[in-house]
Specification:
By secondary structure, the chain is α+β, with helices and mostly antiparallel strands. β1 and β2 form a beta hairpin. 21% of the residues lie in helices and 33% in strands. The protein has a single domain, classed as Peptide methionine sulfoxide reductase (Metal Binding Protein, Guanine Nucleotide Exchange Factor, Chain A), CATH 2.170.150. The chain is built from 4 helices and 8 strands; from the N terminus they run αββββββαββαα. The protein is globular, with a radius of gyration of 15 Å. Bound molecules: zinc ion (2 copies). One zinc ion (ZN) binds next to loops. InterPro entries: YPEH2ZP. This is Protein FAM72A. It comes from Engystomops pustulosus (Tungara frog). Belongs to the FAM72 family.
């Protein structure tokens, strides 16, 4: 997991819930850096949360740059809760990013700290990535997808 900057590994892992129907959207949420041009708080995740959300509408471009986005909606209640970065723009690819392409708006989700097995301590990202094999497989798939888009 060398491409994930160490600064992200010290972040806490959040469990994200849909604020409309309260279902769990994702168990690997990270509080995101504020993106250029916005002051909105976001959460992000790395694994496509396809069990809980679906892509809706058509693609559009992020205001501050040329990242190609598509909104995502909660599968249970149908409300839009965030967006997926379908194709990151070149400056964003070059800048320090955590490789997370699934974003949730903080006003549409609520988060809880994910605890470790003992239930005593909040889980950090560095605790996750070394043990979650499924995670690495999914990221591999993801990179292939991008190559196709960027060609
Ligand atoms: Zn919902
Ligand atoms: Zn961008």
């Amino acid at each position: 997991m060398s491409f994930v900057a160490s600064v992200f590994k010290e972040r806490q892992v959040s469990i994200l819930h849909c604020s409309f129907c309260r279902q769990v959207l994702c168990t690997r949420g990270m509080k995101a850096e504020l993106l250029g041009g916005t002051d909105e708080e976001m959460f992000s995740t790395d694994i496509p949360p396809t069990d809980s959300v679906d892509l809706v509408g058509s693609c559009y471009y992020f205001k501050a740059c040329q990242c190609k986005l598509k909104n995502i909606a909660c599968l249970r209640c149908g409300n839009e809760v965030g967006y997926h970065v379908v194709a990151p723009c070149y400056p964003c690819l070059l800048s320090c990013n955590n490789g997370h392409l699934w974003m949730f708006h903080s006003q549409f989700v609520f988060s809880k700290n994910r605890m470790d097995k003992s239930g005593m301590y909040t889980l950090l990202w560095k605790d996750l990535s070394d043990t979650d094999e499924k995670h690495e497989g999914m990221l591999g798939l993801h990179e292939d997808e991008h190559e196709v888009y960027l060609r």
